[in-house]
Automatic annotation (TrEMBL):
<feature type="transmembrane region" description="Helical">
    <location>
        <begin position="152"/>
        <end position="173"/>
    </location>
</feature>
<dbReference type="InterPro" id="IPR023271">
    <property type="entry name" value="Aquaporin-like"/>
</dbReference>
<feature type="transmembrane region" description="Helical">
    <location>
        <begin position="193"/>
        <end position="213"/>
    </location>
</feature>
<dbReference type="InterPro" id="IPR034294">
    <property type="entry name" value="Aquaporin_transptr"/>
</dbReference>
<comment type="similarity">
    <text>Belongs to the MIP/aquaporin (TC 1.A.8) family.</text>
</comment>
<feature type="transmembrane region" description="Helical">
    <location>
        <begin position="36"/>
        <end position="56"/>
    </location>
</feature>
<protein>
    <submittedName>
        <fullName>Aquaporin family protein</fullName>
    </submittedName>
</protein>
<dbReference type="GO" id="GO:0016020">
    <property type="term" value="C:membrane"/>
</dbReference>
<keyword id="KW-0472">Membrane</keyword>
<dbReference type="GO" id="GO:0015267">
    <property type="term" value="F:channel activity"/>
</dbReference>
<feature type="transmembrane region" description="Helical">
    <location>
        <begin position="120"/>
        <end position="140"/>
    </location>
</feature>
<dbReference type="InterPro" id="IPR000425">
    <property type="entry name" value="MIP"/>
</dbReference>
<keyword id="KW-1133">Transmembrane helix</keyword>
<keyword id="KW-0812">Transmembrane</keyword>
<keyword id="KW-0813">Transport</keyword>
<dbReference type="InterPro" id="IPR022357">
    <property type="entry name" value="MIP_CS"/>
</dbReference>
<dbReference type="Pfam" id="PF00230">
    <property type="entry name" value="MIP"/>
</dbReference>
Amino acid sequence: MPRRLTAEALGSFFLFAGVLGSGVMAENLADGNVAIALLGNTLATGAILFVIIAMLGPVSGAHFNPAVTLAFAIRREIGWREGAAYVLVQLAAGAMGAWAVHLMFDLPIMQLSTKAREGIGQWTGEGIATFGLVFTILALVRVRRDAIPMAVALYIVAAYWFTSSTSFANPAITVVRSLSNTFAGIAPGDVPGFIAAQIAGTILAVVLAGWMFEGGISPRTSSPE
């Protein structure tokens, strides 16, 4: 358990620092071009996701995300007490990642975001983003475990651009991003709506993946009629 929690802490630290730090750097270099800033933020996030999942997955399962932990707890593949410890570590280490970014870029360490992200469009985007992320993981755990690092990284890269919310898809990083008044931030008052949508997307993904992959699958040798 100490090794698992340490892996979750390291992964969450670097994931959250990667998201927020690349957002700061991208905004500084993009000269006001929001599309270029988002592209830089996207590529860095996908890259760090691949690295930390490939590196730490064999130790803790590479959750780094309470939505993923919740999914496995619902499926009884992780105990609720262990899952609660995972979530606490994800939040604490993620907050330290945010504060490290502020320190690196000479920003006030303690701050709150003022960036509004609210409304049915944003919540729908978060629900879809989280559903897709969790479903990707649950599907590949059954059929292609070795593909998870690349698939998750590529999914998030895509979801940054096809969802209205730019795909937070992670309750812990949603909370931590409210502590950073930077490019990737979210106003604290908008956090509950995002988390509710993320939980809904997670539950739907668990239900659908459980039904679709129940008992495993058999490879098809011919096209369906």
